[in-house]
Amino acid sequence: MLKRIAAIAVALAVVAGGGFLIYAWNPAITPIARPNPAAFPHDAVARGEIVANAGYCVECHTRADLGGGPELAGDYKMNTPFGALFSPNITPDVETGIGTWSEAAFRRSMYRGVDRDGAHLFPAFPFNHFTKMSEQDISDLYAYLMTRPAVHMTHRANTLPFPFNLRILEAGWALLFVSPGRYQPDPSHDAMWNRGAYLAEGDAHCGACHTPRNLLMAEKSSAPYDGAVIDGWIAPPLNAHNPTPVVWTEDELFAYLRTGVAPLHGSAAGPMSPVAHRYLGRIPESDVRAIAHYFATMDDAAHRQFQDAAALAAALKASGRDLSGPQHDAAVRLYQGACAACHYNAGSAPVLGRPELALNNALWLDEPNNLYQVMLHGIGASEGQSGIAMPSFYAGLTDADMARIAAYLRATRTTLPPWTDLEAKAAKLRAAVGPPPINASH
Predict the structure, then answer these.
(1) Is the pTM for the entire model greater than 0.85?
(2) What residues does the Cytochrome c domain cover (predicted)?
């Protein structure tokens, strides 16, 4: 009897394994001669450029370390819990890029995460979002990429250990976590909301950074836009769980996404800065407004604004106390010497370019990551508000100094419990950031 059960189990396993291999297998798509760039209509290329900017293609397909690399030629390093991945070359080079890819091969990669040869792509490439894009947008993006300069450049080898380096396993990942199919408009919402949802859920793949992930690095469907840690920064919640005392209204979101600075919430920094300045600043204003409308609706901002006036008044009152704080308090002296001159607000609203810290995400998140990152990195004149910079305090503040300032701000600017292990966390982030380049300027 036991032998029969074992035999049946083995048979079922063989059938299941064979079925999975059949499911996972994809044929190679015949390579083509590199298309003549002049063959693509100018209007398609122009639309494709907008699609590329909305999806930040350059950001993840251009090497950023060691002096950078040619645009779209790949080799951008992405650290994962399983090892490092390096993005591929998506210029139309015929040997190291996608110059021999037909539009059908390109569309399959965007919709299903499978390359021209039939190999599965690692889901650091967010095809789970791109599957929602329209065929027109995919076609236009293909036209744009195929008219870019061809760059002959290979990327560094991924460092994923066995078995995570087996691409066939990604078929199982996709089976578990990807719902293929184009975006379907929600008739209960207006056209602007649906346009914003289409962009946010698809091309712009906002959830790739702002949704927490499970142990297999898939976005948690139970916690959409609840916030997540990205490269040592915290991408804050984009829903009603965002903890800032003044809500992110549609106007605040629009200003932040379009210009990189929101009057009440401060400047974009870290990984979010290029999104506003380098990409969303180059797409139609109506599309940025649609994204802001979508997230303001998700945030239920219109029904939560009743608290804003009191929160703003409390924030400005706290800001005024800094200049008259007790001089014997080391934390107060540090804040007054390093921060107060640029973050003090005396009027009825924060001055643009003088962020009110009591309203900033950085102080209200569960961990001090973003506050420390800005202290260590600073904010360049091209990163936040145009022409206004914050210097790096990497050399000017010790870990103990940063901890004192963080504790002081958390206590005086929020109603939340104190952060813990502040000095140790400062040391950990400092080690990860490393010293800024000697010739760095802001």
Answers:
(1) yes
(2) 43-149, 191-299, 315-413
